[in-house]
Each structure stands twice: as structure tokens, then as C-alpha cells.
Design goal:
The complex is a heterodimer. Chain A is mainly alpha-helical. Chain A is 70% helix and 6% strand. Chain A is built from eight helices and three strands. Chain A has helices at residues 2-20, 26-51, 63-88, 92-101, 110-116, 119-122, 124-132, 147-163, and strands spanning 108-109, 136-139, 142-145. In chain A, strands 2-3 form a two-stranded antiparallel ribbon. In chain A, helix 1 packs parallel to helix 3. In chain A, 28% of the residues are buried. By secondary structure, chain B is mainly α. In chain B, helix 1 (5-23) runs parallel beside helix 3 (62-90). The chains are: A mainly alpha, B mainly alpha. At the A-B interface, helix 1, helix 3, helix 4, strand 1 and helix 5 of A face helix 1, helix 3, helix 4, strand 1 and helix 5 of B.
Chain lengths: 169, 179
């Protein structure tokens, strides 16, 4: 309960902040906000335990309770962060489904879909994301992978090799 | 130790996924994922049952802990499936990074990027998956909706976008403000 409650509080805070001024580095902002909430909650729990406040017995003060609270909170945040990528950037799969639904049963042909979902819509913004997020650089009109991007890409390449799968996308 | 069962379960899920992918490469990807998540869940359940009925004295309301660990495992398994595996399968940013990685320090021009990976490839891959998954059907050369699960998820995401971004799509929301 405490983990779900803290997550909801942090989500409400995110909604308020994002609606006023969405951070430029959205994922860094997301991690900072939810980890900050966790750090504040932990500090509060330590204070409550030290104060031995009888009224706060329902809080996760014992080690087993705290470990359970921490893991569930981290799990919820990780799951939300995963979902957020489909919020921050329009998923082509979801966009295709919504576009087809909007035809009221008529459906869309490949040419019509390609007219709507062009490189400008599907690729350029993602390249911008990579540059904005420091995973790639734009140097003399050429996109070059940055060291953080190398680490990120190699991790997934290794994972795909472990599974025996080819290139994704 | 029992409190770590969600992490142990996640580890079992990942190991099971690698084994299943290697031993049954012809399986549909979704089946391999489901089997792996169930395997990890089985480990969490086994540990939970040991906690409930094992030799060590359990605390008050032990069922609550087992439920919390189960939920934590599900959240972590969701993160693995959609935040890691599915990213490796479908994410455009990752695919672009892999192309840039292959290009080395010289990098790629925009034209070179688009020759390697472009909108047509992206759309056609998604259509193949959606038809194979039964979400769409091809009827007289037009793609039409069949099952509604994917569409329901799409609408849920639009709801979250409206809440957080005040717009139904990233293009309506515009870019974040500059520094």
C-alpha cells in the first residue's frame, strides 16, 4: 500500500510539473522525480523509526517491510518508465491502429499509410531524441554515436546475440 | 532473503527466456516471452510458499508480503518484457543507434541513415506483426481492424498523453522548451 501510495503521489507531482513545463531531458527528469520521492520517503521512515512514533506503526519500518516496500515501488516506477516511452514518443504501431480505426471500417492501404507515416514523422524526431539525450551527436551534418550511445547499443546487441535473434526495429 | 524473491524471479525469467529462445527458435516470440514470465512467476510463487509454510516463523499477515512480492515481480517482468526485450525488437531509437554503431566514428549522413532504416521499413514491419498477431487483416489491399486489444492500449496511451502532455500525440504537444 505504501509503495502504491508513494508512486501515486509522485505521479500526481509529475502530472503537475509536466503540464506546466515539461523538462527537456524527460527521462532524467522522470528518474530524478521518482527517486527523489523515494529518498524523501526513506528519510521520513528513518525519522519515524528513530522517533518510535506509535501512530506510524502502519508504515514499512521493519527491515522486511522496508525491503518489500522498496522493491514494489522500484518495480512500479520501472514499469511506468517503460510505459512512458510510448507516451513521450508516438508508437508507430499504436499510431497505425488509431489511423485505421479513424476510417470507420474502410481501412487503409499501404500507400495511404506511407503518405501519413513518413521519414519526417517516424525517423527525424527519433534522431533528434538521440542527439538531445546525448546518445548521438550531429557533427558537420553527420550523425555520430556518442560514448553513452555505444554502451546502450552494445548492451542490446549483446542481449540479442544471447537470445540468438537478429537486428530489431 | 525472501524479500528478494521478485529479483530472483526476474533472474529466472531472463535465464528461461534465453534458454527458450535458443532451444525453440521457431516459436513465436510472444510464446517464448510468456513461458519465461511464467517460469519466473513460478520461482516467486515457490519462494512465497516456502515463506508461508517453511520452518522459519512467519510475521503477522504473511500473505500480504507474498502478494506484494508477486506484484513487484509482475512489475519487474513487465519492465523486462516491454522495457528491454520489446525495445530490442521494435525501438526505432535503438535501431538507429545500432546503425550508427556499425558506421563507426565516421557516422552517417541523414540520407545514409534513411537508406539503412526508414519509414517504409518501420511501417511494413509493424503491419507484418499486427497481421501475424491478429490485430489487423488485409482485405482487398486495405488493412482493417480485427481484434481490439492493441487499439484499447493505444487509446489508454492517448489518455495518459492528454494528462501529462496536454495533447493526444507528440506532434500536437510540440518539443520541450529549450534550455
Amino acid at each position: 500500500m505504501a509503495a502504491a501510495g508513494l508512486f501515486l503521489l509522485a505521479f500526481v507531482a509529475q502530472a503537475v510539473i509536466w503540464r506546466r513545463r515539461r523538462p527537456r531531458a524527460q527521462y532524467a527528469g522522470l528518474v530524478g522525480l521518482y527517486l527523489g520521492a523515494f529518498a524523501l520517503a526513506t528519510a521520513g521512515l528513518v525519522a519515524a523509526r528513530l522517533g518510535r512514533a506509535e501512530a506510524l506503526r502502519a508504515l514499512p519500518l521493519a527491515p522486511l517491510d522496508y525491503a518489500t516496500f522498496a522493491l514494489l515501488y522500484v518495480g512500479l516506477v520501472a514499469a511506468f518508465g517503460t510505459t512512458y516511452s510510448a507516451v513521450q514518443a508516438d508508437s508507430p504501431t499504436m499510431s497505425v491502429l488509431l489511423a485505421i480505426e479513424a476510417t470507420g471500417g474502410r481501412g487503409l492501404g499501404l500507400a495511404e499509410l506511407l503518405d501519413r507515416f513518413t521519414d519526417r514523422v517516424l525517423v527525424h524526431p527519433r534522431l533528434d531524441d538521440l542527439v538531445r539525450g546525448g546518445l548521438a551527436r550531429l557533427r558537420d551534418g553527420r550523425y555520430v554515436i556518442a560514448p553513452r550511445g555505444v554502451l546502450f547499443a552494445r548492451t542490446f546487441v549483446l542481449f540479442r546475440r544471447l537470445l540468438g535473434f537478429g537486428r530489431g526495429g | 532473503m525472501f524479500a528478494l524473491s521478485p529479483l530472483v524471479g526476474l533472474g529466472a525469467c531472463v535465464v528461461a527466456h534465453v534458454i527458450v529462445a535458443r532451444l525453440a527458435p521457431a516459436w513465436p516470440r510472444a510464446r517464448g516471452v510468456i513461458v519465461s514470465v511464467l517460469a519466473g512467476g513460478g520461482v516467486v510463487l515457490t519462494l512465497g510458499l516456502r515463506f508461508l509454510w517453511g520452518p522459519a516463523p512467519a510475521p503477522a499477515a504473511p500473505g500480504g508480503y507474498v502478494l506484494a512480492w508477486g506484484l513487484a515481480y509482475l512489475a519487474l517482468a513487465y519492465t523486462y518484457v516491454f522495457g528491454f526485450f520489446n525495445v530490442s525488437e521494435t525501438a526505432r531509437r535503438l535501431r538507429l543507434l545500432v546503425e550508427l554503431l556499425d558506421a563507426g566514428p565516421r557516422g552517417l549522413s541523414l540520407d545514409e541513415v534513411l537508406r539503412a532504416y526508414n519509414a517504409r521499413m518501420i511501417v511494413e514491419a509493424r503491419l507484418r506483426r499486427l497481421v501475424a498477431g491478429g490485430q489487423l487483416a488485409l482485405s482487398d489491399g486495405r488493412y482493417v481492424l480485427r481484434r481490439s486489444l492493441g487499439l484499447s492500449v493505444a487509446k489508454l496511451l492517448v489518455g495518459i498523453k492528454l494528462l501529462l502532455l496536454r495533447a493526444p500525440s507528440e506532434f500536437a504537444a510540440g518539443p520541450p522548451p529549450p534550455r
